[in-house]
Amino acid sequence: MTERRSTAARHIPKKALALAATLVTIALAMVFMTRSEGTPQREKREALVPVKVAAAEQKAVPVQLQAVGTVEAYATVSIKSRIDGQLVGVHFREGQDVKKGDLLFTIDPRPYEAAMKEARARLDRDAALADKADLDARRYAELVAKNYVSSDKYEQFRANAQALRATVAADRATLDRAQLNLEYCYIKAPMAGRTGRLLVDEGAQIKANDDKGGMVEIMQIMPINVGFAVPQQYLAEIKTHMARGTLKVEADIPESGTKPETGTLSFLDNKVNTQTGTVMLKGTFANNDRLLWPGQFVMATLTLTTRGDAIVIPSVAIQVGQDGQFVYVVKPDMSVESRPVVSGMSVGDDVVIEKGLTAGEKVVTEGQLRLVPGAKVQISS
After folding, report:
1. Is the pTM of this model over 0.70?
2. Quick one: three-class SS letters along the chain?
3. pLDDT at 36 over 60
């Protein structure tokens, strides 16, 4: 057995043995160099955490309240007939803009024209009788003064004249009412606005002051109102700033791509809603471009005043921990510290810091998840 092993070993070429030994030596050297040179670089890369930062700015920011609002027509009128009759004319289209005094509907005027003629004829007849009764009363007044007739006869003629004068007055009132009813046959717009859906058709029989609904609805949309509710804790502040002057209100239409409409605060409700704990406000807008439409939802922003010395940072820099809100502040030696802050109102994508930061300090806005207090950072562009 020993002799066979020694014989096999003698048959292995010496060059192959030398090559194998060389390869093993090179492999060990490479492993050693990789461990000795790669470890410090990897530790260096892990020590510098790439982050993005923003500087805290001191600037003027508006003090605002935001709430979801609903667009409301400045005025709404439901058109109803004041007389009975058949509708013989519709003089507008659905959704048409009308001016004050424009003719909207015509109700068959013929019955009311006949009633007016009858009232005028009755008035003329009774007026003639009243004139004759006055003459008779004056003539009998002269006769009774000369004792040609009895005073009872005179009193009878005088009472008849007075009764006919009262009849003439009643006839004149009847004529006025007949003329008014004839005017009611022509229904006109009581204000400028936009008509809605037509609720009656030509030829329909119309009832006076029908409780089931009107004939059409007109809404005034220039100007227009936006109603919104804010929490009651802001009520005192709102009243204080209203006493100092007119407050600005903006209405932003979500996802419209248009600039917010600007108006003024025109209404503060006289009570707080006990169910929601909010108070209702209204802003009035010129709405010249008609971007605001009744029933539309908008984001209403009420500006109370402007703070000139507010410290502002991007809202993404705010972190929330067990002890409350904090930010990572980058120190001059490129290490970070965890700084507790007190945040205030939001201004777009920024937030006002009431306490904890000064102007010019850099806060981390991206990469906070890899940070711990004292970690070294590398600022990325």
Report:
1. no
2. CHHHHHHHHHHCCHHHHHHHHHHHHHHHHHHHHHHHHHHHHHHHHHHEEEEEEEECEEEEEEEEEEEEEEEEEEEEEEECCCCCEEEEEECCCCCCEECCCCEEEEECCHHHHHHHHHHHHHHHHHHHHHHHHHHHHHHHHHHHHCCCCCHHHHHHHHHHHHHHHHHHHHHHHHHHHHHHHHHHCEEECCCCEEECCCCCCCCCEECCCCCCCCCEEEEEEEEEEEEEEEEHHHHHHHHHHHHHCCCEEEEECCCCCCCCEEEEEEEEEEEEECCCCEEEEEEEECCCCCCCCCCCEEEEEEEEEEEEEEEEEEHHHCEEECCEEEEEEECCCCEEEEEECEEEEEECCEEEEEECCCCCCEEEEECHHHCCCCCEEEECC
3. no
